Amino acid sequence: LGDFELFKNHLVVEERARGLTQIRVLPMSPWSGAGHYLEFDEPAYRAGLGANPEFDTATLRFEYTSMKTPLTIYDYDMNSRARKLMKQETVLGGFDPGNYVTERLYAPAADGVQIPLSVLYRKGLKRDGGNPLVLYGYGSYGLSIDAAFASPRLSLVDRGFVFAIAHVRGGQELGRQWYDNGKLLNKRNTFTDFIACAEFLIEQRFSNKDKLFAMGRSAGGLLMGAVSNLRPDLFKGVVAEVPFVDVVTTMLDASIPLTAGEYDEWGNPNDKQFYDYMWTYSPY
Fold first, then answer.
1. How confident is the model at residue 258 (pLDDT cuts 50, 70, 90)?
2. Which of 33, 37, 53, 74 is the most exposed place for a label (fewest CB within 10 A)?
3. Looking at residue 7, what is its pLDDT?
């Protein structure tokens, strides 16, 4: 459960299933049926409730986007199930969503867990193992990185790059347990999941080790540092933006305002169990 909205005759619930957001419309009268889900055609996307200030209405406003669909606002009639396009983000430069392909794949992790991957590439791309590829990841604080639109990516994709998002543990795409299994004494799962995704994309002939690049920011920069140390042979290059790479020293400094609040994420290194575990992955 991610969010909900109450109307006079309907309850609308924003849910997640297999890492994808979905919207469910339920009648307030129990004899009116079990409700229904809004249908979305693309394999990887993000949908969410919009601004709905009116209580006595059958119209739901929601947002939709994917890696090839700009942010779009719809009004949806919860009785007739008809939707009306209200607004879509404008993309300059002759953009045509038909020129791109998105996929939702699942990479097997070392412990057998299936890690979702959202992939974007130019239509007509040959899957021959020779394409440059950027694999993006975050995987901390329970923050879900959904398959949303970002126009700067098109510059890469139009030049033959594949762009992929690894929805690794430590995020919350697959619920609270997905977060719990990527924090504290389970933090290494975040890094091994990302490596498994990279290896899977190579196996699926999207790219190869000489053309594979990793990218992450902040806590995702920690991910970059960790995978660089664990598998330096796997990546041709790494983009680590404002990376958090000295976990032990940072968490030992209680004078930093954020430190104590971060114990729930990384653990308190004053406890030897957490101290020793942090040293197994801290990039610095």
1. confident
2. 53
3. 97
For 52, counting Cβ atoms within 10 Å of its Cβ (0-12 exposed, 13-18 middle, 19+ buried), the class is middle
Mean of per-residue pLDDT scores for the chain: 96
Confidence of residue 29 (pLDDT cuts 50, 70, 90): confident
Which strands sit side by side in the sheet containing 36-37, from one edge to the other? Answer: 3-6, 10-17, 20-27, 36-37
Q: pLDDT tens, 46-65?
A: 999 999 999 999 999 999 99
Please state, in angstroms and as integers, the Cα–Cα distance from residue 44 to each residue in 20, 106, 119, 165, 218, following that order.
Answer: 7, 12, 8, 11, 25
pTM passes above 0.70:
yes
Phi, psi of 15 (to 5 degrees): -125, 175
Q: What is the rounded distance in angstroms from the CA atom of residue 80 to the CA atom of residue 21?
A: 22
Length of the chain: 284
Place of tokens 């004078």: 255
Confidence of residue 32 (pLDDT cuts 50, 70, 90): low
Give φ, ψ of 100 to 5 degrees. -125, 155
